[in-house]
Design a protein that fits this description.
The protein is of the alpha/beta class. The chain has 2 domains: 121 residues, Nucleotidyltransferase, domain 5; 161 residues, Nucleotidyltransferase, domain 5. It is built from 9 helices and 12 strands. Helix 5 packs antiparallel against helix 7.
Length: 305
């Protein structure tokens, strides 16, 4: 199997793409995500079959999902696409596609994509950061994902915001059942809630960024608070993992100058006399998830036909 097929199962769309041996995208297709488990399995199988018909060959299949598999039960957990939770998705997709598959959290797929041939290509250690509707992350060392004993390596979004000031304590309630999680302030909705609370303006994160570029004082203050919180949060990962590169992805990563601002502020928080970690924006954009899913099968791991 010379083709790697990646599947990005998102809340709004399912995308399938085939990469050749050199990582070039041969063909891709996408459909709207059915908010139903059985129909999602069928849609993925049909997309993979359609892509394989175009390339004229069977391929390995990797799947990225907005959740993870429990090592204990093999069932999906923690997916914001709630119809997946508690279901044996890996088993059912393997049966539908008549071959082994590999399934992984979408943030891990993002990290693997950017470490393999993206913005962190050539780095030995990479922390891939998703800052969008939620906050996720993945760790890659020497080109391989670090999944962890419980399958949650890199899930920094449900640690508490570090070094909180009086106005940030005890923090907003999080869907996980705790308060003050990084996700509640460093996600796109977190930035938007903070701006609305301070100004009364219900703006999107993109609008806040554009207003700050035009010199809107309140938008600049909101962005300053966001950068400070994001920098503190990333610094705790650097103190623990010390990666060569941090790659920012997700919608909020498109704010102009965000990687540079975070990188320049890290020395204030990292436990070192200097901060060597580079902070960069992703290379593959929205395609990182599907590309990372395809890369879940390295060359030496090709299964039997």
């Amino acid at each position: 199997m010379s083709w790697r097929i990646g599947v990005d199962l998102g809340g709004t769309k399912i995308e399938v793409a085939a990469l050749d041996e050199d990582g070039r995208e041969g063909v891709s297709q996408r459909v709207a995500t059915p908010h139903d488990y059985d129909r999602s399995v069928v849609a993925i199988a049909e997309l993979v079959e359609a892509v394989e018909k175009e390339i004229g060959e069977r391929g390995t299949v990797g799947v990225g999902i907005p959740g993870s598999l429990s090592p204990k039960t093999g069932l999906v957990r923690n997916a914001n696409s709630t119809w997946l939770n508690g279901r044996p998705l890996e088993r059912d997709l393997a049966r539908a596609l008549r071959r082994p598959i590999r399934l992984m959290n979408d943030a891990n797929c993002f990290a693997l994509s950017e470490a393999t041939d993206g913005a962190a290509e050539g780095a030995r250690s990479v922390f891939g950061v998703i800052i969008g509707t939620g906050v996720g992350g993945g760790l890659v060392v020497d080109g391989r994902l670090i999944d962890g004993a419980s399958g949650i390596a890199g899930e920094w979004g449900h640690n508490p915001l570090p070094w909180p000031n009086a106005s940030e304590w005890p923090g907003r309630a999080c869907f996980c059942g705790r308060r003050g999680c990084i996700e509640t302030v460093c996600s796109g909705p977190g930035l938007e809630r903070d701006h609305a609370h301070e100004t009364g303006r219900d703006w999107s994160s993109r609008t806040i960024g554009e207003a700050a570029e035009r010199g809107d004082t309140e938008a600049e203050k909101s962005l300053d608070r966001y950068v400070d919180r994001l920098t503190r949060s990333i610094a705790t990962v650097i103190n623990l993992f010390d990666p060569e590169v941090v790659v920012l992805g997700g919608g909020v990563s498109n704010l102009r100058g965000l990687p540079e601002r975070v990188g320049s502020s890290l020395p204030d928080w990292v436990f070192s006399d200097h901060a060597s970690t580079r902070v960069v924006r992703n290379r593959h954009g929205d395609s990182s998830g599907v590309r990372g899913a395809a890369w879940l099968w390295p060359p030496e791991a090709t299964p039997a036909r």
